[in-house]
Structure formats: structure tokens, C-alpha cells
Amino acid sequence: MTDYVADFRAHGYAIVRGFFSPAEVAAIGAAMDQVYAEGVAHGRSFRHGNLFYTVRPGPDGAPHVPMVQWPSYHVALLNQTRLDPRWATLLEPLIGRDIKQIINQLHWKLPDRSGDFAWHQDAKSRRPAEAYRNLGSSYVQTGLAIDPHTPESGAMRFIPRSHGAGPLDLDTSVEVLGTEMNDDALVAAGIDPASVVDLVLDPGDVAIWNP
Hints:
Elements: H1 3-11, E1 13-16, H2 22-42, E2 46-48, E3 51-57, E4 63-69, H3 76-82, H4 85-95, E5 105-107, H5 135-138, E6 141-144, E7 157-158, H6 183-188, E8 197-198, E9 206-209
């Protein structure tokens, strides 16, 4: 697993294959199905403390749940998953042993990316800036694939080595969630859209990326 550290440093992201077993992924997926059904039952976005269901009309007009924040607060299996000691082992070479999770989310992506995110850097959401000193070297974003994560299923897209440029002048005038990616935003920030790569993951794979 050591190569992921070099990949992360060089490219700004890395993939660790088979981080969770098929049986573990199936159990996590079942818990996610429960959370998704809860969001649909609410019929609209709903918050209880830090637990937040984002609910929007899907392509067919029925409620779609693109994201839930902090579902681990009330689903024991998801809480166990986020606290699994393998995460600490994975992250220690990157950010050390003193680790705090500041955000915990589930995402359901649509194949046509209509419920996706506009081009952005995660650093945009780490506010106030003074609370995140040395953000680039002290914070890592992680994502666990539950279903096949491919271009056909609405995979995330990355710009390799863009982390080396620091904060990019990407258009932040629109809400990131639910806004389709527009490559014009990349061109305006001096980025060649041809450099974009799709993040392809199998169930159980983990991606890590720089803010």
C-alpha cells in the first residue's frame, strides 16, 4: 500500500484497491439504502443537528437524495465504519496520528451527472481559513466506493497535479452541489480540460485526495 503515498504527493490524489472486503461493502451498502429511504420519506431536505438530508427532485420528478451529512450519528454500522482503525493506518503517513474527522457524508451520484458538483476544490468549504492552518498538508479527503464508480455511473473527475497550484480561481458564484460541471470554468482558471481524468473505482476501493 506504500505507493499511494507517492501518488498522493505527486498527483494530488491516489487510489487504494480493496480497502474494504465485498462482505463489508455489502453491509455498508445496506445501511446506505436505509439512509436513502429515510431521505425519500422526508420528501424534502431535512436537518436534525448535524444530520442533514439533501433531497431534490430527480430526473423523473421523484425525490432524489444526492447527499446525507453525518448519517453516522444514528446508524451504528456507519459509525463503526468511519471509526475503523484501518483509516488511521492509511492516513498516518500523510497527516500523522492525531486525526479528527470534520465531515462525514454519503453520496448517491446520477449517471448523467445532473446531481453532481460543479468544478471546485474542497478547500473552498474549509472555512474560516484561519481554522485550517497548513490545510494542504494537514487535511485529506477520503472516499469509499460502494458501487462501481465509473464515467457511466457519474464518477468524480480530477485534475492531476492541480494541487500544486494552490487555490484556483474557479467560479464560485453558483452553488457547487447540484450544478453540472462546466469545462469553461477550467479554461477561465487556466486549466486544460484535456488534463481531466475520471476516477474509476471498484466496490471497496478508497480514493484519497488533496483539498
